[in-house]
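REQUEST FORM: STRUCTURE PREDICTION
Request ID: SP-0412
Submitted by: Lab K.M.
Chain count: 1
Length (residues): 195
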Amino acid sequence: MFDVEGFILVGGQSRRMGRDKSQLILGGQTLIERIAEKLSAFACSVSLVGARKDYPGFRNIPDIHPSWGALGGIHATLSTAKTEWVAIVGCDLPFVTHDLFTRFQSFAADAVDAVIPIQADGRPQPVCGLYRPATCLPEIEKLIAAGEHTPRALLGKVRTRYVEFHELKDLPGAEHFFFNVNTPEDFERARNLID
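STATUS: Completed
RESULT:
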């Protein structure tokens, strides 16, 4: 059995949105609820990382390095994990699916520390993937001590299996997996996608 906990990063400032992205309602659910529903079908538990308030039904993991961005959220996740792997998703990626994470799992071999997708535009998406805490945590602590803030720096320090988009595009909904809800315009587009 694949040993994995799920974590949703909710600690961002939501500056471009102007309000808490995690609580936006899409298809009758908050973004947190939508993502948690998909993760809970894959992971043994789902927790929030960096929430500013309590959300009923979810354990919240506080940031160890507040205001450190996504790398800080990943660090808090890895620091608290009890399983061999963790699944991490940013709260602004509402179209991830159980199938997506099951596909990631197929690439989580012994010689791999992180499984990270490459979006259709060719960019890696480090806040939607699998990480092995035992090997990633020591590296992320070195990066933070050196003042690094970008998650991509971690990917260059560990054995990362990049999953090219063509390896995902056969999955239902693949064209929207990495649709990022950052602005009110993005949110309106996301609402149109599910209407």
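NOTES: The CA atoms of residues 10 and 20 lie 9 Å apart.
Reviewed by: T.R.
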